[in-house]
Every structure is written in structure tokens, then in C-alpha cells.
Specification:
Number of domains: 1
Radius of gyration: 13 Å
Strand content: under 5%
Helix content: 55-70%
Largest sheet: 2 strands, antiparallel
CATH class: Mainly Alpha
Shape: globular
Number of strands: 2
Number of helices: 5
Order of helices and strands: HEHEHHH
Distance between the termini: 27 Å
CATH topology: Recoverin, domain 1
Structural class: mainly alpha
Oligomer: single chain
CATH architecture: Orthogonal Bundle
Strand order of the largest sheet: 1-2
């Protein structure tokens, strides 16, 4: 049961970040258009590798691909602990 809770927490944190970056809210992050204004500056440092990979892909990135890139660079713990994002205010 605890693994399910951790998985749900991880999904919620990553979905919040993904949604903040999805500028047109179509469920995809476009490589030529990121919405970064609502992401804390110190968190952007941790997203640098992800942003670079999305930009290099030249194709829109969906949520499962975003999660795969986060896992590839083992960034979840960093993203979770840097400038916590209020899930309540971003998931309205």
C-alpha cells in the first residue's frame, strides 16, 4: 500500500510540473514553446536536462514520456524537494 501512495505522490508532483509547462493545455509539451513563468527559478535548474531533451526531440512530449525522461535522469527527488509547488493551487 505504501508503494501505491509513493507512486501517487510522484505522479501528482510530476503531473503538476508537466501541467505548468504545457502552455496550451493540450496534454503535450511542445519543443518550441514551454511555459516556464510559473515554475520557480531554482526548480528550472533541475529541469534543464528535461527541457534540453524535449527541445532536441523536435516533437511534442506527452506525460508518460516526460516521466520517462525524469526517471532517465533520476530527477524526481530533486524536483520534489526544490521549492515545493502547491498542488492545491495548481490542480484547480
Amino acid at each position: 500500500m505504501q508503494n501505491l501512495l509513493v507512486s501517487d505522490e510522484k505522479t501528482n508532483v510530476l503531473k503538476t510540473i508537466f501541467d505548468l509547462m504545457d502552455s496550451d493545455k493540450d496534454g503535450l509539451i511542445s519543443p518550441d514553446q514551454f511555459e516556464l513563468s510559473s515554475i520557480p527559478t531554482d526548480m528550472l535548474e533541475h529541469l534543464e536536462a528535461i527541457l534540453f531533451e524535449i527541445h532536441q526531440s523536435k516533437s511534442p512530449t506527452d506525460f508518460p514520456t516526460f516521466v520517462a525522461v525524469v526517471n532517465k535522469y533520476s530527477l524526481y527527488d530533486d524536483l520534489k524537494t526544490v521549492s515545493p509547488i502547491s498542488l492545491a493551487s495548481t490542480n484547480d
